[in-house]
Amino acid sequence: MSGDGTPLLQVRGISKRFGGLQAVHDLSFDLRRGEILALLGPNGAGKTTAFNMIAGYFRTDQGRILFEGRDIAGRKPWDICRIGIARTFQLSKPFSDLTVAENLMVGGFVRRSEIDEIRAKALEIADFLGMGHQAATEVQHLTAFDRRKLELGRALSTEPKLLLMDEVVAGATPSEAQEMVELVRRIRDRGVTILIVEHVMKVIMALSERVIVMESGRLIANGKPKDVVRQPEVLKAYFGEGYAARA
Amino acid sequence: MDPLILGFAVVNGLLIGGIYGGVALGLSLIFGVLRVVNFAHGSLLMVGLYTAYWLQALAGIDPYASVIFTVPLLFCMGYFIQRVIIAPLIWRESALVVEPLSALLLTAGVYLVIDNLALMAFGPDVRSASTSLDMPPIMLGPIPVNMQRFIGFSAAILAAIGLVVWLRQTRMGRAIRATAQNRDAAALSGIDVPMIYAVTFGVGTALLGLFGSLLATFIPITPNVGLSFGIRSFIVVVLGGIGSIPGSILGGLVIGVFEAIASQFVPATSAAILSLGLFILILLVRPGGLMGKL
Amino acid sequence: MALRISKNMGAPQLATKSGYGRMATLLVVAAGVVALALPIAMPDPYFVHSCIVVLLFAYMATSWNFVCGYVGQLSIGHAMFAGVGGYATVLIFSRLGISPWLGMLVGGVLAAMLSVVVGYPTFRLKGPYFALTTIAFAEMIRIWVENTDTFLGIPLNGAAGITVPLVGESWVAFQFNGKTPYYYVILVMLVLALLATWRLERSKLGFYLKAIRGDRDAAEALGISPARYQLVALAISAFMTGVGGGFYAQFFRYVNADRLIGVEFSIDLALMSIIGGQGTVFGPLLGAVLLTPIAEITRGHLGGVLPGLHIVIYGIILILAVLYLPKGLIDPLRSILSRLSKNGRSA
After folding, report:
1. Alpha-carbon Rg for chain B in angstroms
2. What's the mean pLDDT in B101-115?
3. Which of B31, B265, C238, C347, by CA, is between 20 and 30 Å from C184?
C-alpha cells in the first residue's frame, strides 16, 4: 500500500534559525510517491517550520529540498504550487466572501485556462468533498468543519502531486475526524502523495504507513507508527522523562 | 552656509517640530488604543482654531484663555464621534477590533463633513486671531525665539509628559493601556471597553483643542487648513512609531528640523515633497517607526 | 438564509441565476437605451453638460474599482493617474500638435507606468498604510506640479494650470462646439470600462484579485503571486484613469493640479465606488449616478451660497453606507431584483 517506492520529495539537511532559536536543525527525510507520511512532534518541535520551508513560506538557511529531483528550496509559494505541491493551513483561510464553488475555482487557473472546464472541475471537487449541494453557498455561512474540508478541496483544485496538510483534525469531533481520515485516504487513492503534520496520535495511527518524529528541531524517529510510538525517545518527547522510564 | 541662519533654521525647526509632534499626539494615542486611523484629525484641529478665533472675535476672549473652552469642546466632539459614528461599526462587526479600512472610511466621511461645514459656515476667507498679551521674542544667544511658537512647543512637551504620566499613574490610564494591549482580556477583567474607547478618542481630540487655541495666533485659519496638518501628523506618527507618545514628539522634531533645514537649500514646497517621500520610505523600510509601541 | 445569489458567481444555481440575470439584463438594456436617447430627448446644453459630468465620474469610479474594489485596497491617490493623463493630453497637443485622441492613449500609458512605480513597493502594505501611502504619492505630485512652472522646458504653469488651445470644431483636435459629441465619447468610454470589469469578473485575473482580497497567504498557496497580479490590475486601472484624465482635459479645456490631482478628487472616486458597491460591475456607476447629481444640483442652485454642501452630503452618505450598507447600495438592489424575477416566474 505504501507507494511505488520512488522518492517524490527528498529533504536534505534543511535548517532554519529564528534569532536565537534553532527551529529546525539538519532535517532530512524522504517521501515516496503514493504514500501518506506523518510528521509528528510535540509543540515547538519545528514541524510547522519545516512544513513552511517546503511550502516556500520560509526560506531555508541551509539544505536542499528536492521535488522530483529538482531543488525547490527558496522558491516562492506560488512557484511551489505550480510545480505541483499544494498545502493547507492550520487555521483554515477561506475566501469568505466567495462561494464554495468559487473558492474551488481559484486554484484551477494554475492548470487550465478554460473557465468552464475550471468550473466543472471545481464542482467535481465539491462533490468529492460531499459539499456539492453547498456549491453556491458563501463560505462565511459554512460550519468550521466544512471550511476545513473546503481548505482541503481548495488545495486539491491545484491538482497537486504532493499535498502538505497542517493539522487537519484539530478541533474536530470524533465523527468529523473519522470523516476527515476517510477523505484523506480517498485523496491518496486519487494518486496524491501526502505529508501530514499532526498532533493527534490516533489519527496518525489510522492513516499513515510511516511516521517521522521531530523534537527540538531534529528528527528523532522514522518508521511504522506502531513501532515508532514504542521508541523511548518519542515517548520522552511526548510525555516527558518519567513516562519513558515507566514504558 | 551661514551658521547663524542654520542655527535659526534649527531652532525654528525644533519649535515647529515640537508643535507638529504635539498635534500628532492624539492621532497616535487613538491609533495605539483603537487601531483607528483618524482621517478627521486635522479637521478637528481646524475646529479648535476656529473656536479660538470666534471666541476672540465675538466675545473678546484671548486665544490663550480660550483653552478652557476649546479643550472641553473638542473632548466632547471626539467622545461623540467615537460613541455615535465609530462604535456602531464595532457592534456591527461584533468584534472589538474594527476592520481598519472601514474605520478609516468613516473618519474620512467625518473629515468631509466637518471641513465642508466649515467652508459653508465661514467661507474660504483666511482669518487669524491675535493675542493681547505682549510677547517679544526672547533671545537665545544671537537667535530670536518666537514666543508664541515657544509656548506651543512647550505645551507639546508638557502634554506628552502629562499623557505618559496619566497613562502610567491613573486608574483610567492603566485601563487604557490594558485595553490597548489586549482588549479581550481587558473586557474580561471588567474594563468598560466602549467607554475607554470613547474617553481615549476624546482625550486625543481634546489635545487638538489645546493646540487650536495655542496656534490660532500664528496659523492662517481656513476651512481646509486641517488636511495639511492631518497629513503631516500621519507623517510624524509613522516616523515616530505608531502608538508611541515620545515617538510622536521625536517624529515631530525630526520632521520640523528636516523641513526647516531642507528649505534652506530647496524651496519650501520641495521640502514638503521630501517629507512625504520620507514618510513613504519609512512605511516601506521601517513600518515600526523610530520608537516602538505604546 | 445561507444562500446568496450574486450575479458574478460561477455558481451552479442556474435556475435562480438566469431568472435574476434576465431581470438585470432587461435593466441594463433599458438603461442603455435611455443613455443613448438622452441628449436627443433633452438637448438642453446645461443638462447634457451635467450628464457628461455624471458619466465621467462613473467612468473614473469604474476605473478605480477595477483594482481597488476587487483587491480590497483603498487608493486615495488615483487622481495622480488622472493628472498624468490630463496633463499629457494637453501638452502633447499644445506642444507637439498631436491629436488628443492619441494623447489620451499616451497619457494612459504614462499613468500605467507611474502606477507600476508607485504600486510595486506600496502593495506590500495593508489597509490604512496602503491608503496613506497612495495619498502621499499623489500629494507629492500635486505639490510638485503646483509649484513648477517649467520642467525640462515643458511649461506646467504651476498652480495656474494649462488651458487647451482652441482650434474650433474638429474631430482630430477633439474639440466640439456642442456638448453632445462629448456625451457620446464618454458614454462609449464608460461602456468599455464596464465591459472590461465584466470580463475581469470572469477571468483569471478577477478570481486572483478576489483571492488576494480574501486571504493573501492562501492565495499564494494557490499559485498566485500577489505583487504581480495586483500590479497588472493597477496598471490597467491607471491606464483607464489616465485616459479619463485626458477626456477631462478635453471636455473642460483646462487642467490644474489642485482639482485634477487633489486629494478630494481621489476621495470622490473611492467614495462613489464604495457607496455604490465596490467589487461589482455596476456599483461604481450606481454610486456616481446617485452622488454626482447632488453636486451638480447644489452647485447649480446654491453654488454661491453653500459651496461645500454636496461634499457634506457625500460625507454623511459615506458614513451611513459604511455603517449600514458595507456592500454598497447595489446590494439591496440585487436582492430586490432577484425577488422580482422569482415572483415573475412563479406568477
Report:
1. 19
2. 90
3. C238
Alpha-carbon separation of residue C65 from A24, A68, B76, C235 (angstroms):
44, 42, 37, 13
Contact with chain A for residue C35, Cβ under 8 A:
no
- Set of chain C residues whose Cβ sits within 8 Å of the Cβ of B105: 74, 274, 318, 322
pLDDT-derived band at C79, boundaries 50, 70, 90: very high
Residue at grid coordinates 504620566: B165
Asked if the Cβ–Cβ distance from B279 to C129 is below 8 Å, we say no
Q: Touching check for C4 and chain A: CB below 8 Å? A: yes
Domain residue limits, chain B? 3-123+144-285
Of B229, B248, B226, B242, nearest to B283 by C-alpha is B242
Q: How far apart are CA B189 and CA B183, in angstroms?
A: 10
Residue keyed to cell 468559487: A102
Residues comprising chain A, all counted: 247
Mean pLDDT on C243-257: 92
Contacts of A93 in chain C (CB under 8 A): 214-215, 217-218
**pLDDT (mean) for C236-248:** 96
Strand partners, A210: A37
DSSP state of A16: E
Q: Exposed, middle or buried by CB within 10 Å (0-12, 13-18, 19+), for C40?
A: exposed
What distance lies between CA B131 and its chain's CA centroid?
Answer: 22
Residues on chain A touching C213 (C-beta within 8 angstroms):
95, 97
Tell me the pLDDT band of B136, cut-offs 50, 70 and 90.
confident
Give first-to-last CA distance, chain C, whole Å: 23
The reported pLDDT for the residue numbered A231 is 82
pTM of the complete model: 0.88
Q: B108 to chain C: which residues are within 8 Å by CB?
A: 76, 267, 271, 315, 318
Write down the mean pLDDT value for chain A.
Answer: 86
Contact C214 A155 (CB under 8 A): no
Rounded CA separation B170/A58 (Å)? 44
Domain A7-246, CATH number (from 3.30.460.10, 3.40.718.10, 3.40.50.300, 3.30.499.10): 3.40.50.300
Cell numbers given for A151: 481548505
C-alpha span between A99 and A136 (Å, rounded): 5
The reply to whether residue C147 touches residue B104, judged by beta carbons under 8 angstroms, is no
| Residue among B194, B164, B188 at smallest CA distance from B177 | B164
pLDDT in tens, A78-137: 999 999 999 998 888 888 888 999 999 999 999 988 889 999 999 999 999 999 898 888
Q: Do B227 and C263 touch (CB under 8 A)?
A: yes
Query: How close A203 gets to chain C, by Cα (Å)?
Result: 25
Do A106 and C224 count as a contact with CB atoms less than 8 A apart? yes
Cα C252 to Cα B293: distance, rounded to the nearest angstrom: 49
Q: How far is CA B12 from the centre of its chain?
A: 19
Correct CATH for B3-123+144-285 of 1.25.40, 1.10.3470, 1.20.5, 1.10.10:
1.10.3470
Residue B22, pLDDT score? 93
The predicted structure's pLDDT at residue B109: 93
Question: Grid coordinates representing A187?
Answer: 485523496
Residue C21 CB: number of other CB atoms within 10 A? 16
- The answer to whether C150 contacts chain A (CB < 8 Å) is no
Of B88, B108, B238, the CB nearest to C323: B88
pLDDT at position A54 is: 92
Please state the ipTM of this predicted complex. 0.88
Contact in structure between B142 and B5 (CB atoms under 8 Å): no
**Is C335 within 8 Å of chain A by CB?**
no
- A183 has a chain C CB within 8 A of its CB: no
Q: What does the pLDDT read at residue B290?
A: 57
- CB neighbourhood size of C96 (10 A): 11
